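Duplicate of earlier report; LacI family DNA-binding transcriptional regulator input re-posted below.
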Amino acid sequence: MTGSGGRVTLNDVAERAGVSRALVSIVMREAPGASDATRARVLAAAQELGYRPDARARSLAGRASHLIGVMFGVGVGAFHFDLLEGLYAAAEERGYNLILSPVTRGRDEAKAAESLQDFRFDGLIMLGPPTAEPLLAGRLPVVVVGWHVDHPRVDVVRTSDETGMAAAVDHLVSLGHRWITHLDGGETLIGASRREAFLAAMRRHGLGESMRVVPGGQAQVDGQRAARQLVEQGDLPTAVIAYNDDTATAVMGVLAQQGIAVPADVSMIGWDDSEAAALSLVGLTSLVQQPAELARLAVQRIVDRINGRRVLQREIVLQPQLHLRQSTTRPRPSS
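Output:
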């Protein structure tokens, strides 16, 4: 027999174990007041019935909830979903659950934060939106993944845009490319960071006059629009560095439709080293971001903050590596 709606309740567990509901509550809250034998009997009954504690009710009861809020953007590419998968795995290892709150075009950071208030979560991991002043900063532990934040109460786990973009430009220049275009990620903090890193890397090689930035975005449709713009303008670069793999593969698809070959006519570099890069028709050279490691470090940091452990360094920056595939080669002799 189970409670209303088919959900197993504390009363069901108490009846199966032959103890009071209050005693079951003590066991489930890991509070003192029950013998080892009683605890074992109650836990066995709970397992037999398939009882799962109500995380929301537990969080409202005044004790540590073991809940981590996660705010993330929808429609920003496959990389964020790889991050989410890594967060679930890392949180489970540490005995925490995740509460997800998406950010969409019609649901901004404020609304996403408001929906999380239904739960007394212990800390927040932000995969988006990339903002310089997270709304919940200073009110509880906050870790952002992917971009730099100056706020002293916000921790950062990210990949170095500067190192990654320098590696991409260095590789192309070593092949003989001079006319290189960056398809940027739009008006976001990460997009701006990679754009500035591209400009700096090109200037370092004395290529300030031949560099070019095409406005883009984070989704495949942004890559398609940018590719059509490049084709319509008629003055194709010899190489393109895209904001991410999603936009890079979209560009490759549009170029192929126009009879423009990658890499013979245009070399292409993406960012993230996602499954899309490995499975694209022409293997995509891409910068490795290690989403599982970023997620592990983010969970480790938020749990340290939740438990009041000393943190020596507020920002963790991983150094990306360039994974070479078939999408880059030397430019044609006439280029």
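The mean pLDDT is 90.

Merging into the original ticket.
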